[in-house]
Amino acid sequence: MRTLASLALLVASALVSAPASAQQPARQDPARQRSEQAVLTPGDSVRIVVWRKPEFSGDFVVAPDGSITHPLFRAVPVAGVPFATAEANLRKFLSGFEENPQFVMEPLIRVAVSGEVTKPQVFAVRPETTIGEAVARAGGVTDIGSRSHVRVLRLGPNGQEQKEVIVNLSDPNNVTATLPVRSGDQIIVDKKKSVFKDILLPALGVIGSIASLGLLIDRVSRRP
């Protein structure tokens, strides 16, 4: 029995002293990673839940100066820095009230969905939300909306329109369907194109105009 106990002790010691390189590295949750890398801008929001302190908890908008619109959080900068840094700033602030504060802080970025959707609106979503999920939150595409031509106006760092991205939501295998939203995105669902209304009618109008012009020229040329 003593020999077995000694062997078990040696095995346990070997497992404890195993080099760190032999252990599998823990994979970070992609959603958590995206949240930590998110950069908030004024107009976005943060969701804060502080353990046993309801006066510190709630959803708060990021102010124009980059702080949180809450009387107690005005000294906490959260905009223009990686969210992990904003979280550290909040932890430092809360540490002035209690040691090792327990809290959860989530970023909520502002996006607008308009055009041919059931409920056009501006709302706050988590950074891992895809463009397709944002459209679904706005009630989805209407019967006359085009799922294959969704325009995303994406703002640059200076707050001005930078580029337009065309997203195809009709093909689940299309990489654009799973693109995550960014702060300030304007998502616009266009109407479906009608071959008869958008192509044939204008063409017939042009043909009719040419025919009328031809008749007019013919009449003028026949005059004595």
Written account of the structure:
By secondary structure, the protein is of the alpha+beta class. The protein is built from five helices and seven strands. The chain has helices spanning 2-16, 30-37, 83-94, 131-137, 195-222, and strands at 45-50, 58-61, 103-115, 121-125, 145-155, 161-167, 186-191. Strands 1, 2, 3, 4, 5, 6 and 7 form a seven-stranded mixed β-sheet that branches. β3 (103-115) and β4 (121-125) form a beta hairpin. It is elongated. The N and C termini lie far apart (131 Å). Residues 1-25 have low confidence and may be disordered.
Main traits of this protein?
single chain; 224 residues; elongated
- Sketch the topology as an H/E string, one letter per element: HHEEHEEHEEEH
Computed over alpha carbons, the radius of gyration is 30 Å
Mean of residue pLDDT? Answer: 80
**Tally of separate helices:** 5
Low-confidence stretches: 1-25
How many strand units? 7
Silhouette? elongated
SS-derived structural category = alpha+beta
Give a quick account of the main beta sheet: strands, pairing sense, barrel closure.
7 strands, mixed
What fraction of residues sit in β-strands? Answer: 15-25%
Measured between the Cα atoms of the first and last residue, the distance is 131 Å
Kindly state the percentage of residues in helix: 25-40%
